[in-house]
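S1.2 Input.
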Amino acid sequence: MRNIKFCFIILVSAAILSACGNADESDTVNNEGNNTDEKWAEIQDAGEIVVGTAGTLFPASYYEGEEGNQDQLTGYNVEVAREIGDRLGLETNFEIMSFDSMLTALDTGRVDIIQAGPREESREKFGFSEPVKYSYSTMVVRSDDHSGIETLEDIEGKKAGGAATTVYSDIAREFGAEVVTYGNAPNEAYLRDVNNGRTDFVINDYYLQSLGLTEFPQFDIELHPDLRFHSTTNNVVMDKEADVFLEKVNEAIADMKEDGTFTAISEEFFEGKDVSKEPEEDIIEIEGIE
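S1.3 Output.
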């Protein structure tokens, strides 16, 4: 795996049929006879995909060197996005933003894609690709007493570090915890606050948290040894009407899984683990949480 410092080629061409008749006959069409979505045409014209990403979360999206230098931006999410762009014959550029800002940026067209898990509310507004990552949730707690948490019910009345709009914060609230929200903060801020008692726990992705902990051995914190819950996926998210773009992305994802590219990227960033395959552990599913 590359030296770590903390803090997605199929060339697709669209056939544009220009008729000499009226405006209705001049619409772009795909091979099924339906109108090609404007987003795919826009992306092709621009020659690039703009991706919203955090840039602060190891090993998903972080800088290896100079912060703000896209050549130094890397991580699983980043390299998956780059590979998809390459297979679509497009450049991939990144906008750094907090998770809570990503859906707004996608909705307003500031970015073309982000990576996130599907939820009922967001499915009504955005399009989701096939999964690019499978995982489940766990929590970071203090090592000496697990922050007084042995079951999910024990988090009632405790403080959870998290972003305002994530499923992880929804889980904390579902069981009666108070969520202490952060901006686009690095892992260190979340973990330090569990260590010093400002918060009691952080719920997040198992793989991200297990690797994040290795960067801060000075903190007296650990993954809860007994709590594995809420299966999750990470998907490429885009405009709801971008049907052709979604089809192209799904084709690239299928090819990447078939030729082993996903496995190789995953093993690089997750210490040999393959997050492109569903986990085999027994996972507690939480009713009412997507």
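S1.4 Remarks. Residues 135-230 form a domain with the D-Maltodextrin-Binding Protein; domain 2 fold (CATH 3.40.190.10).
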